[in-house]
Amino acid sequence: MTTTTALPVITDATIAAELSPTSGLVAVEFGAEWCAPCRIMAPVVEAAARDYAGRLRIVQMDADHNPATVVRYGVRGLPSVLVFRDGTLVDRIVGAVSASTFRERLERVVAG
């Protein structure tokens, strides 16, 4: 599988370990190889992963190859970034958004 970013890749089989009750802040970017908006967002998400390192872990999941997680969290549009705090969903960013909007949404979660 070719990923759209250089982020760590998780799967249906590994997501439970990523989103444990003690996992802290984790953002899961749902994307797909064919998704043009995912490619547009890739540099924004990668920059955020670097800038928030130590406070927020950002990982990637291929929506086409992990249908159980897509269904479980109701992912209907790509890209979708679901943000979890200790395994609980706290925010959902859907579609290609501006870098400033993406940062503002992440900042609210990190600060809160």
Q: Rg, please?
A: 13 Å
CATH superfamily: Glutaredoxin
What structural class should be given to the helix and strand makeup? alpha+beta
Briefly, what CATH class? Alpha Beta
Number of domain modules: 1
**Form type:** globular
If helices are DSSP runs of H or I spanning 4 or more residues, what is the number of helices? 4
Provide the descriptors you would attach to this structure in a database record.
single chain, alpha+beta, 4 strands, Glutaredoxin, 112 residues
Report on the architecture of this protein.
Strands 2-1-3-4 form a four-stranded mixed beta sheet, covered by helices on one side. It is α+β, with helices and mostly antiparallel strands. The chain has four helices and four strands. It has helices at residues 15-18, 36-51, 67-72, 99-111, and strands at residues 25-31, 57-62, 80-85, 88-94.
Quick description:
The chain has 112 residues and is α+β, with helices and mostly antiparallel strands.
Write the layout of secondary structure elements.
Elements: H1 15-18, E1 25-31, H2 36-51, E2 57-62, H3 67-72, E3 80-85, E4 88-94, H4 99-111
Parallel strand pairs: 1-2
Antiparallel strand pairs: 1-3, 3-4
